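Ligand-bound model needed. iron/sulfur cluster.
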Amino acid sequence: MFIVKYIKEVFNAVKSLFVGLRRTGYYFTHHKEIITQQYPDNRDTLNLPERFKGEVVMPHNENNEHRCTGCTACELACPNGTIKVITKFDIGTDGKKKKAIDKLVYHLELCTMCNLCIIACPSDAIVMAQTFEHSVFDRAELTKILNNPGSKIMEGVE
Amino acid sequence: MVEEIGTTEEGDLIINVGPQHPATHGVLHLVITLNGETIKKVEPHLGYIHRSIEKMCESLTYRQFIYVTSRMDYLSAHINNHACALCVEKGLDVEIPRRAQVIRVLMDELTRIASHELWWGAMAMDLGAFTPFFHAFRERETINDIMEETCGARLTMNYMVPGGLMADLHPNFQKRVKEFITLYKLKINEYAELVTGNIIFQNRMKGVGYLSAEDAISYGCSGPTARGSGVSCDIRKLYPYEVYDKLEFDEVLETEGDSFARYMVRIGEMNQSIKIIEQLIDNIPDGDFQAKTKVVLKLPKGEFYSRVETARGELGVYIVSEGGTTPYRIKFRSPGFSNLSALDHMARGSKLGDLVAMMGTLDLVIPDIDR
Ligand code: SF4
Ligand code: SF4
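Prediction:
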């Protein structure tokens, strides 16, 4: 029964097209469900999850103090030399010499956001920030110094 | 070398597809010898995104090298990390806590679904249907959001580290995954309505790019490519790692060996992954997410090998250690390379227009091939 088979095939083919078209028609009439975001217009309401790895930063408290001891664990953990810890010796209040950081240089252009430095840091001095708009006109701007100028180590952090 | 002349001595036409051809994902360069519209030979030229990952890994420590492997098969980043972490753990001889094992499997399966979703959209787009791409991305986006919440990144997570995981699950994880499962079940029949059942799609896929089981084995194909030809090669079943041996799921096999069979295998695998996730999501055991490991990892002298099933097939990681903190040699056996090598055999004698369908069903990720 060649002819019956042929007609059946044609019928099924046309039916398959209409099944697809029905789905298309459904979305044509139900366009309320919006799945896209109006970036960058929604910048103010954009909430990235707190674990999002955007950039390494060093939080400071209100007295301009950070938690970094200058132990260089982050520098050793980093796979591509993104962090350079430059240390100096401070004279503490008791007159003793104490190791402290002069600058913690961070090359954003090299960073792969792998989180290894954050895990390696024994005193939780660095964290990941949720910023992600990193494009700048000059490459030099991507080399950052994470500790604020004139900042000190927090009391009680060893 | 690419021939400068457009024709061979027999009068066959030589054309270059790629590196920037819209039909190729990544930058794959194919030199095709054509007799009229019939393909006589397909020659892939590789190396456009070769980053020398294997060599790079040799200068990185066992904790550091994992992040680079996310950049191989970027659609199965979790599974790549998993393979490397497994290999290092084998060398260290540590057993990771059960909680970490379950989470790893959950993440692997979510990655597999995300990868297959993207493949499905891209494949339909290659064949001229643009809308499925958006449908696929709608669901994939949900998975990406889950990943972003727990791992902090959408593609290159670096979440599975030697000894366990980088961080514990986000408190929202279970809820979000359950929401995703509901959404997936609601939407998956759209895939069948829009693409699978479509007569134009079926005619372009059925009987195209035939690969016999023997050829699949001799070319070293793995994953859905080989399973479409009826070769049972699921590492999760054959060499179970983590908790896969305690799970109930089927290895999806089709025997036709054509593009449509490979397509059906991937669609079936998504459903199996959902089944695995459903079994685990309510049974994540409590406990640590990391085993106790030293800060500086040193593997004993010797050779270590681990294999996992990525979304594209079997990924093998082979580490030679001299006893130091960095590997002496690392070799990755990537599934994409062997699958691509079967393309020439598949394509010979078929028409140029069918090549896109074949490449689509091979699910090529070029950074995985080039490394
Ligand atoms: S996130 Fe990774 S690459 Fe970036 S500074 Fe930290 S360790 Fe280095
Ligand atoms: S940021 Fe942390 S790991 Fe790096 S030097 Fe400071 S204390 Fe050490």
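Residues A 68-74, 85, 120-121, 123, 125-126 surround iron/sulfur cluster (ligand 2) (CB under 6 Å).
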